[in-house]
Input
Amino acid sequence: MPGLRLEGDGVRVTLASARRPLAEAGRLAETFDPVETACISVNGFGAGYHCRLMSERLRGEGVVICFEPDLNLLRAVLERVDHSAWIAAAPFVLIIDPDDGASLYDGLRGIEALPMLGTKLIDHPASRERLKASAPRFSAILTRALKTARSSVATALVHSRSPVRDIF
Output
């Protein structure tokens, strides 16, 4: 599998298992039940295999939100591994700034109900150490976005009775 480790400027970044990256990604994707979960938030894109498998498990009926602030890593991975088909086919939100709530709200626009159907937070093991400073900041904006989405859906449900009542 290409793009499993990146090296440069004296830094070595592991993106996925060097021996069995798809098996590792599969184990991570199996950590949630797609019947009970429609929103996955994963910290770390790595080589992207786990995001793809999570998205496939949701079968287009859920959203994968990925927080990955390292643009050089993303560029290197996307130059080596073609993730375009699954990213285009299913709801996928990529957040690169841990403080950018606006992009997260935009990414969830129109699919606000999905987080209400169950949300699971997952750390990509190979990214955990690299994101330890920024992941808590992202978690804070994610929490706010999920509360806002929940409120929006609840408000829509409360007001949905009014137009029906007005018809009769």
In short: DSSP finds seven helices and six strands in the chain.
